Amino acid sequence: MATIYDRPPRAAAPENPTRSQGPAPQPPPQAHPGEAKQESVGDLIGEITQDLTALVRDEINLAKAELKEEATKAGKAGGMLAGAGYAGHLLVVFAGLTVMFALAHAIDIAWAALIVTALWGAAAAVLYTTGRKRLKDVHLKPEQTVETLKEDAQWARHPTS
Predict the structure, then answer these.
(1) Do 75 and 83 meet the contact criterion of CB atoms below 8 Å apart?
(2) Is the pTM higher than 0.85?
(3) Is 17 among the domain residues?
(4) Which of 103, 96, 87, 102 shows the shortest CA–CA distance to 119?
């Protein structure tokens, strides 16, 4: 069995590295001296298509990353608003209880609870009717966008008119 010690030693490197041991390799011949190699139109179109595809893919990935970051921010802000809504709800409940117990010093607690309940019922009725009226004024169909799309379609059919 042969080992690495049984192999013959390698040739030593030349002492003067600037001096080569033979002719230097020549670049491939060009069609005309001074001109770069010309690629075919198909190759150029292929390269442009690849570059454009890579550019679009990179832009899409950047947009996804930005949207993900903004969605995370929006989610955190929405969670904080939900927490604020819950805290507001508790504030209203405890304010109602405070009013009820304050009235209980003047009248029976059952009558105080009934008065506070009636006040909250009236507030709920006013909010409901106001919200319903405003909801009827909401138009989910984007009127201006539909009109512009109709104009664009008409122009596309008759671009000179």
Answers:
(1) no
(2) no
(3) no
(4) 96
